[in-house]
Automatic annotation (TrEMBL):
<feature type="domain" description="Aminotransferase class I/classII large">
    <location>
        <begin position="35"/>
        <end position="371"/>
    </location>
</feature>
<comment type="function">
    <text>Catalyzes the decarboxylative condensation of pimeloyl-[acyl-carrier protein] and L-alanine to produce 8-amino-7-oxononanoate (AON), [acyl-carrier protein], and carbon dioxide.</text>
</comment>
<keyword id="KW-0808">Transferase</keyword>
<feature type="binding site">
    <location>
        <begin position="101"/>
        <end position="102"/>
    </location>
    <ligand>
        <name>pyridoxal 5'-phosphate</name>
    </ligand>
</feature>
<feature type="binding site">
    <location>
        <position position="25"/>
    </location>
    <ligand>
        <name>substrate</name>
    </ligand>
</feature>
<dbReference type="InterPro" id="IPR001917">
    <property type="entry name" value="Aminotrans_II_pyridoxalP_BS"/>
</dbReference>
<protein>
    <recommendedName>
        <fullName>8-amino-7-oxononanoate synthase</fullName>
        <ecNumber>2.3.1.47</ecNumber>
    </recommendedName>
</protein>
<dbReference type="InterPro" id="IPR004723">
    <property type="entry name" value="AONS_Archaea/Proteobacteria"/>
</dbReference>
<keyword id="KW-0663">Pyridoxal phosphate</keyword>
<dbReference type="InterPro" id="IPR015422">
    <property type="entry name" value="PyrdxlP-dep_Trfase_small"/>
</dbReference>
<dbReference type="InterPro" id="IPR015421">
    <property type="entry name" value="PyrdxlP-dep_Trfase_major"/>
</dbReference>
<feature type="binding site">
    <location>
        <position position="172"/>
    </location>
    <ligand>
        <name>pyridoxal 5'-phosphate</name>
    </ligand>
</feature>
<comment type="pathway">
    <text>Cofactor biosynthesis; biotin biosynthesis.</text>
</comment>
<dbReference type="GO" id="GO:0008710">
    <property type="term" value="F:8-amino-7-oxononanoate synthase activity"/>
</dbReference>
<feature type="binding site">
    <location>
        <position position="200"/>
    </location>
    <ligand>
        <name>pyridoxal 5'-phosphate</name>
    </ligand>
</feature>
<feature type="binding site">
    <location>
        <position position="126"/>
    </location>
    <ligand>
        <name>substrate</name>
    </ligand>
</feature>
<comment type="similarity">
    <text>Belongs to the class-II pyridoxal-phosphate-dependent aminotransferase family. BioF subfamily.</text>
</comment>
């Protein structure tokens, strides 16, 4: 058999397995007019005119692309200004830009961990954190979700010279929040560093919008990762911490060293978005009102909501065909929600991942609630 045929058969086999389990994914083109309850633009800043204008001006001033990696000639003054602003916002000495959140997590774990390191991860951590641990070559253990006693048990049994505890800040599929204080205490008790990926908390949580780590310094949380493409509405990511950490990453994080720097227009737009987050709490306050209103209305219908008080509001339907049917019925009404199935979530935990934004209007939420109510009524009329 020709080599190409063998490869094509392998691809066809993998496809057929997914199709047989009704888990083959399809991209959707999100058209104008569709009501989006699936994205992560929590503060609506991706559509903010000032952020858009800053991006356009950044492109005119600095060019459409950086043209090289940060260590060659791609680190421009706008990147430097953004790193300084992010460090100040998060209360850290330094910050370092990465092109994506995935690359940030891969880079940190690959640069810090090796075969003499033990990594302890929350069982529901994002895929990029799990993949980064594999890339590092470290020994990796996963503790029960938000279970500090299980983490402490694993740490106490480890004889590794270096220990690293890793957790999401806000868990992307469940919307619940890590107990930062307890994680920090347990980590310090066992001489471990703590790494928090606050992708879904930055801009949303905290009195000043600086996330679930607000009030915790670099002694408590030595490694802070944040993304710019969610509440800040742009793209890219950063790592914040002490100067020694950042200098180490510049030297050893391969996903930082060997890639073109973030487009300068994105950095310019992010600077404006960050200023809005810091100076205009009304966006965050409006989002919190939306979350409260949605939960009140959904609970009145008896919908199976997860216990989340973040913009991520999972509707736990459990059954995969049921989840896909509800998503399709909402799509027919011009409402886009995330239909999340295994392997992204455990078997039996399929859900609609509904996300709220400050950009939504109360009537948008009413339209979503009516759509969910219609799904309920149709299901009751025609039970499976």
């Amino acid at each position: 058999m020709p080599v190409s045929e063998a490869w094509l058969q392998r691809l066809a086999s993998a496809r057929q397995q997914r199709v047989d389990h009704q888990r083959w994914r399809h991209r959707q083109v999100n058209t104008l007019g569709t009501l989006d309850f699936a994205g992560n633009d929590y503060l609506g800043l991706a559509h903010n005119p000032r952020v858009q204008a800053a991006q356009a001006e950044g492109a005119r001033r600095f060019g459409a692309g950086a043209g090289a990696s940060h260590l060659v000639s791609g680190h421009l003054e706008v990147h430097d200004a953004l790193e300084d602003a992010l460090a100040e916002w998060t209360g850290r000495q330094r910050a370092l830009l990465f092109s994506t959140g995935y690359m940030a997590n891969l880079g940190v774990l690959q640069a810090l961990a090796d075969s003499n390191t033990a990594i302890f991860q929350d069982r529901l951590n994002h895929a990029s954190l799990l993949d980064g641990a594999v890339l590092s070559g470290a020994r990796s253990r996963r503790f029960h979700h938000r279970d500090s006693a299980d983490l402490e048990r694993l740490l106490a049994r480890s004889s590794a010279p270096h220990k690293l505890v890793v957790s999401d800040g806000v868990f992307s599929m469940d919307g619940d929040v890590a107990d930062i204080a307890t994680l920090a205490h347990v980590s310090q008790q066992h001489n471990a560093w703590l790494m928090i990926d606050d992708a879904h908390g930055l801009g949303v949580l905290g009195a000043n919008g600086s996330g679930c780590v607000e009030g915790f310094d670099s002694q408590a949380v030595p490694i802070l990762v944040g993304t710019l493409g969610k509440a800040l509405g742009t793209a890219g990511a950063f790592v914040a911490g002490d100067a020694a950490l950042i200098e180490h990453l510049i030297q050893f994080a391969r996903s930082y060293i060997y890639t073109t720097a973030q487009p300068p227009s994105i950095a310019a737009a992010t600077l404006e978005a960050l200023a809005i987050v810091q100076r205009e709490p009304e966006h965050r306050q409006r989002l919190q009102r939306h979350i409260s209103y949605f939960r009140q209305q959904a609970q009145a219908l008896g919908l199976p909501l997860a216990d989340s008080h973040t913009p991520i509001q999972p509707l736990l339907l459990g059954n995969e065909p049921r989840t896909m049917a509800w998503a399709a019925k909402l799509a027919q009404r011009g409402i886009h929600v995330g239909a999340i199935r295994p392997p992204t979530v455990p078997n039996g935990a399929a859900r609609l991942r509904i996300t709220l934004s400050a950009r939504h209007k109360p009537e948008d939420i009413d339209r979503l609630i009516e759509g969910l109510s219609a799904c309920q009524r149709e299901e009751a009329a025609c039970p499976a």
